[in-house]
Design goal:
Mean pLDDT: 89
Low-confidence stretches: none
Strand content: under 5%
Number of helices: 3
Largest sheet: none
Distance between the termini: 19 Å
Order of helices and strands: HHH
């Protein structure tokens, strides 16, 4: 799945539940989820602050 497809799927799932977020917030949210998943829940504040979604 491409990053764009993933973003679209999450956006659709949220909209089905009446949650509408901007694309920037969706990208940051997915980056946070990826960080926490990759670090197995041991992400640091510095890592969270340095998320790059560009």
């Amino acid at each position: 799945m491409t990053p764009k497809e993933r973003l679209d799927y999450v956006d659709i799932a949220l909209r089905i539940n009446n949650i509408k977020l901007s694309e920037d917030i969706l990208k940051i949210t997915l980056a946070c989820v990826d960080l926490v998943d990759k670090s197995k829940g041991k992400a640091t504040l510095d890592q969270c602050l340095n998320i790059n979604t560009k």
